Amino acid sequence: MPPCHLYGRRDPQSLTQKSGALSFMPYYVYIIQSQIDSTFYKGSTENPLNRLEQHNLGHTLSTRLKRPWKLVYIEQLPTKTEMLIREKKLKRGNKEYFEKLMKGDKNILDGFIKK
Q1: Neighbours of 69 (CB within 10 A)
Q2: What are the phi and psi torsion angles at 34 (to 5°)?
Q3: Of the candidates 3, 40, 80, 106, which lies 20 to 30 Å from 87 by C-alpha distance?
Q4: Coil, helix or strand at residue 49
């Protein structure tokens, strides 16, 4: 059977093997905000909390000088393709758009951060 029939419209890379069964791994877009000057950085990842840690440790050249960063938005997407398309759209956004997103229903940040 061709691979496209096994996965349907899902990206093959979004599949993981757990206990002999295939499961779908979620993808995320995120927005972080600099605590130095309040600028925003937009990105995508499979692990938003780990990615935030990388930004705050200075592992990303484009965010190194504006540390520390705070996670302000996380949105889950079902496939890598959808994640990358959504990330491109976020990168075209402005401050007002990001502030609206942060208050919106798609922001799952509260469910991600343990209090």
Answers
A1: 23
A2: -70, 135
A3: 3
A4: helix
Provide the whole-model pTM.
Answer: 0.79
Cα separations in angstroms, 96 against 66, 70, 80? 20, 18, 26
User: CATH number of the domain at 26-112, out of 3.90.1070, 3.40.1440, 1.10.10, 3.40.50?
Assistant: 3.40.1440
Residue 31 class from Cβ within 10 Å (0-12 exposed, 13-18 middle, 19+ buried)? buried
In sequence order, the 6+-apart residues with CB closer than 8 A to the CB of 112 are: 48, 49, 71, 74
Q: Parse the chain into domains and list their residue ranges.
A: 26-112
